[in-house]
Amino acid sequence: MSLKGGNLSYQGQIIPQNKMKVVIIDWILHNLMFEGAYDETDIQSPVCYAFGRTKGELAPNPEDVAHPCNATCNGCENNEWGSADVGRGKACAETARLALISEADFGDVEAATEAYLKVPVTSMSYWGGYVRELEQVYHRPPLAFVTEISIVPQAKQPGWHLEFKMVEPLEDDDTMAAVLAKYDAVSAKIAFPYPKFEEPTNGKTVKKAPAARRPAPVKAVAPKPVAAKKAASVPKF
Questions:
Q1: Average model confidence (pLDDT) for the chain?
Q2: What is the 3-state secondary structure (H, E, C) of 4-39?
Q3: What is the pTM of this model?
Q4: 174, 179, 194, 232: which could form a disulfide with 45 (CB 3.0–4.6 Å)?
């Protein structure tokens, strides 16, 4: 899935009205940092990134990140307010990766191909509020519901954000069983690494990720891979 230009698209097709019904099979917290300004013509992987079910678990995996900025996101200089090159934000973006299936695939969940969506930093409060609402009101995780994802223009300033709305719970036992089976498969691979570009892309030579601009000594033992959780558990912000 793509949010490029404030347009919601799926498999290369623009979604009408910027709204789409999905089942969010799984999700994971995701920190990432890029080197230099964004250039849509020069695709690059982040120089450092991490996945975790809780903030305390967020740590770059040395097998995937050649030059981690720090052993853990907690305590990393790039995860401090004011570390960004511009403004008072953080150099490392705090986001989430969602694994989902589209409404068109609800009839055959088992055969459905999952899509992945990165929640922008500016939409994380909306995502966090939605997850807490489902947990506190219904005592169930997002995979137990049909969710409407929409891109909404900002009210008082330029730009947009994602919003999430519960459409209906999944009541059919067979559908729910298929969703849980899909969760078992997706949760084991949702923390897949970014590609390491070496070949020219769009006419530009894209190199492997360089050392981070604010390196810090790695003191801790290499983190263990993210383990799959039971479907009833919910990642914590």
A1: 83
A2: HHHCCEECCEECHHHEEEEEEEEEEEEEEECCCCCC
A3: 0.80
A4: 194
